[in-house]
Design goal:
The protein has 4 helices and 15 strands. With 225 residues, it is α/β, with parallel strands linked by helices. Bound molecules: zinc ion.
Length: 225
Amino acid sequence: MKILAISDEVVPQLYNSNIETRYADVDLVLSCGDLPPYYLEFIVTVLNVPLYYVKGNHDHEPRVYTESKDLLLPDISKALPCPGGCVNVDGRVVEHKGLLIAGLEGSMRYKPGPYQYTQNEMMHKVARLGTKLFLRRILKGRWVDILITHAAPFEIHDGKDHCHTGFRAFLGFMRRYKPQYLIHGHSHVYDRRQPRTTRYGETLVVNAHPYRIIEIDDPGSAGRR
Ligand SMILES: [Zn+2]
């Protein structure tokens, strides 16, 4: 199964009509956050395959509320829509042709605003997601195949500053649930010597910025764990 993973930056290599032929064999798209809805909608429309995503710290709230008398009402004129035709997988697990995909949005909390979490808050998100994976374990005999996140795991592809520090909870997630891949964004790569793929136990950690093609065995095929 061929996966197009994207994150953080709109790139002309993808934002043009040639992707229809160049990436015609892509089975699904995974977006790791900080990308505008128009970009996701363009890709999902042209490639016509499922697109699963999580939000990053620079994604805005989908709705702006205004005060009307005593009520807070959604201000439709100011609403930044969620990308149409795309599926938000934050805190959820979805299945695509037998492939189990889960997601965890956001970065380390560094200022007031949405889609940011403390180490502790992310630990709770991981625990909540774990309860949802439990059912899959019973039904499928494995927890999850791919975890998509915005931030990197702690000390893997992450930064030294607070905003770009990775989450420790992702390390525990990989040790316990052993996904084949953890695909993240948030850590921009401008130096080709910077590692973009790192093995952690049984998981390959991949930085998707700004885009990567990932080949994964079809679920149930020989050679899978
Ligand atoms: Zn980010």
